Amino acid sequence: MLSKSKLFLVAISLSLMSTFIFNERVSAATTNTPSIVDQQNNEQKEQTQSNSDNNQIEDSNTNDNNSGSNGAINTNKKHKEVPKVVYSKKKGSGKIYQTDYRFSKTLTGKKRSAKNWYKRQISYSKLAKTNKGTFVKTKYGWLNKKAFNQFLLTKNKINYKMKIVRNAKLYNLPAHTNDARKIGTSNNLHLKNKLVHVNMIAHTNLHAVYYRFKHQGKNYWILGKNIKYNLKALEGNKKSLERIIKIGEKMIGHSKYDEKSRHFDCSSFMNYLFTKVGHHIGSTTFSQCYNGKPVNYKNKKRGDLIFFDDKDDGHLAHVGVYLGKGLFLHDSPYTDNGGVGVSSLQDKFWNSRNSKYLSVHYPDGIVRRIM
Could you tell me if 346 and 283 are in contact, meaning their C-beta atoms sit under 8 angstroms apart? Predict the structure, then answer.
C-alpha cells in the first residue's frame, strides 16, 4: 500500500500529463484553423484570381473577333441586308418626264444620267418591285418608273366656289404625279352638279390643270375640265358687253388653241368677240393695247382687256378679257381645256414673275377699256 506522499506525487504527475496533452491539441487546432483576417485575405486572393481569369477570356474573345475581320468566320458580324426584289415580265413604254432619275446596269449599280431624255419615248421588258420603288428594265438599263410621271410647274392656294359638271375620278394628289392615287369619284360622293369650295390649283408639265377641293373634311384633286367656275354670278347689266362674253363662254371646251391653223390664238379670239358688236381692235396684242382708253390695273372692270408678259416670249405676249373676281376669259394652250377657257389671277401660273406669265400691272394704261 502506497503512502500518502507517493499518492500525492502520482496525482501531480497525472495532472501535468493532462495539461501537456491539452496544449498539444489546442496548438494543432490553432495551426489548422485560419483566423478571420486570414479568411478575408484568402477571399480577396480568390476574387483577384477570378477577375484575372475573366480578363483573359475577354481578351481571347476580342482576339477572335479581330481575327474574324481579317478573314476567319465570325458568326456575330452583321451582314448588309439584301433588298427583296419581286420581278414580273410586264412589257410597256412611256415618256421620260422626270430626268432626275437615272439609268443603271443593275438595281444597285452606279447610275447614269437621263438629263437629256426629257419627253423621249422608251420601251421596257420587265418590272422589279423593291423596297426602294418600282423599276423597269430597258435596253439602256434599269430606271425608276417614277421617271414617267408628270411633275408640277406651279401649285398655290386659291379661293372659289366651283361646280363639278360630270362624273370624274378624284385623287389624293394631281393625277399622274409621284404617289398620286385614285381615292373616289364625284358620283360616289354625290357631287355631280354640286358646288364645292376649291382651295388650291396646280399645273403639270403637260399643261394639265388640277383643282383641290374639300368635302367632309377631306381634300380631293380633280382635273380642270371636270369642274367649272360659277360664271353666272358675275353677269352684269350692259347688254352688248354681256353678248360678247356669252359668245366666248359658249366656246369653252370647243375651240383648241392653234395659232398656225384656222383656230384662234389669244389676240384673234379677242378681235373675234369684239367684232361681234362692231369694235375692230386688230388681231395682235400690240395693236389691241392702243384701242379704247387706258385704265389703271387696280381699277379694271368686267369687259376690260388685260395683257400679260411672257417669260419666254417677252412683253405683251398674251391677252384676255376680264370677267370679275380675278377671273378672265382667253384662248391659250394652258387653260383647263387647252384652248378657250377661264383662268384666275389668283393662279401663280398667270400672275407670278417666277412662272410663265405675269399680268401687266403698269399704271400707265396697259389695261384697256374698249366699251
Answer: no
Grid coordinates 366656246 are at which residue?
251
C-alpha grid cell, residue 24: 498539444
Cell numbers placing 197? 369650295
Secondary structure (3-state) at 142: strand
CB burial of residue 297 (10 Å; 0-12, 13-18, 19+): middle
Q: Which three cell numbers stand for residue 132?
A: 426602294
- The conformation of residue 121, written as its DSSP 8-state character, comes to E
Residue 330's alpha-carbon distances to 99, 207, 366, in angstroms, are 32, 15, 17
DSSP annotation of 79:
P
Start-to-end C-alpha separation, the chain: 173
366/359 Cα distance (integer angstroms): 10
C-alpha to C-alpha distance for 298 and 364, rounded to whole angstroms: 11
Would you give per-residue pLDDT tens digits along the chain (371 residues)?
545 555 555 555 555 555 545 455 545 444 444 444 444 444 444 444 444 444 443 444 444 444 344 444 444 555 555 568 899 988 999 999 999 899 998 888 777 777 789 999 999 999 999 988 999 999 999 999 999 999 999 999 999 999 999 999 999 999 999 999 999 999 999 999 999 999 999 999 999 999 999 999 999 999 999 999 999 999 999 999 999 999 999 999 888 776 555 578 899 999 999 999 999 999 999 999 999 999 888 899 999 999 988 877 788 889 999 999 999 999 999 999 899 999 999 999 988 755 666 666 544 448 999 99
- Beta strands 182-185 and 169-171, pairing class: antiparallel
